[in-house]
Amino acid sequence: MRDQELPADGLSIEPTCRIEFGPGRIAALPRLIDELGHRRAYLITDRGVRAAGVLDRVLAVLTEAGLEHAVFDDVAANPTLSTVESGAAGLERFGSAAVVALGGGSPLDAAKAIALRAQPRLPGLPLLAIPTTAGTGAETNGFGVIEDPATRRKVYLGHASVRPAVAVLDPELTTGLPARITAATGLDALVHGIESLSSRGANPISAAYAAQAVALVARWLPVAHRDGTDLEARSRVMLGAHLAGQALTLSGLGLVHGLGHAITGHAGTPHGVALAAVLETVMEFNADTAGEAYADAARAMGAGGDAAAAIRCARDLADGLEIRAPLRDLGVHRDMLPSIAAAATADPVTRNNPANTTEAQLHDLLQTTY
Ligand SMILES: [Zn+2]
After folding, report:
1. What is the DSSP string of 79-128?
2. 283 CA distance to ligand 1 centroid (A)?
3. CATH class of 18-174
4. Within 10 A of 4 (CB to CB), how many other CB atoms are there?
5. Dist. CA 275 → ligand 1 center (Å)
């Protein structure tokens, strides 16, 4: 790693959530809820988590401990403001409880907004996050990405008080994930690490998290993708995804996410698949400005130390995961491109991109990945 620039006005960084990590760690959930001063739990999840049997495993732990609980499992793949309203109404009916978010990024993000919305005033209800994918790092911050269907844009809802108090990182909960979801969520974690390294908001602390995250995910994601039952690979990718979440929470991200959010908003493409479609093109666009950060990413991925090596490694990794496709194969119509470019320009996440962008440049980038 090169020497990171020291911020002229210093650093003020709060540690994020407490982590409980390890295979089988879900068994600690009743004690963790108790330590937050609650004896009741309101679980927020989605139907996929229920269908995979993961919700039942968690409910069995709560039932055995005699904890009263209710379940809201109506979170869609890209949660909307109406998801938040109905989840909050259910929580108000259930009454005071710890909120347990169980799932990938969507249930975790929805849970933050629901925990906030259900309270008449701040702070929001205490939140425990149990990721069932290794990707989003959503357990590390108090902000949820929620879609406003009227504008097809992402809105960021949240508050420091609904940053999860505890994250239970139990890799056993991810061993049943299908390979294509392992690929999409794991690639999201890799992009979090790379974009965090090159972000305008990067600092020595975020870079430490990001470099380790990139190293873990690049090395172990292909193994977890090949054999989903490999618990060591699942464990290391889960830690990598969490560290990437710590990194991005401190640094912000960049244009891969700006475009990715806009593509998902227009075509419903899964987050990681949308990122994979534009990753190489955006890295090439940024390479002159972000050369040193990309060199750090290359070294973390075990490749040579320049931007070209990082771009090659990231592309090869995505290809090995069979996740990279042109936008035209992802439900994106050519006439959506101007609106995608506009939404990406307006997305606050784009402001941390190392290189400046104009809407016209983004439109050109989209044409080359179409
Ligand atoms: Zn992401």
Report:
1. -BHHHHHHHHHHHHHH-S-EEEEEESHHHHHHHHHHHHHTSSSSSPPPEE
2. 16
3. alpha beta
4. 17
5. 8
Whether this prediction's pTM lies above 0.85 is answered by: yes
What's the gap in Å between 140 CA and the centre of ligand 1?
13
Neighbours of ion ligand 1 (CB under 5 A): 188
272 CA distance to ligand 1 middle (Å): 7
Over the stretch 307-335, which tens digit does the pLDDT of each residue have?
999 999 999 999 999 999 999 999 999 99
Cα(93) to centroid of ligand 1, in Å? 33
191 C-alpha to ligand 1 centroid (Å): 7
- State the Cα–Cα distance between residues 34 and 358, nearest whole angstrom: 51
Question: Where do the structural domains in the chain lie, given as residue ranges?
Answer: 18-174, 179-369
First and final C-alpha spacing in the chain:
35
Question: Does 1.20.1090.10 match the CATH number of domain 179-369?
Answer: yes
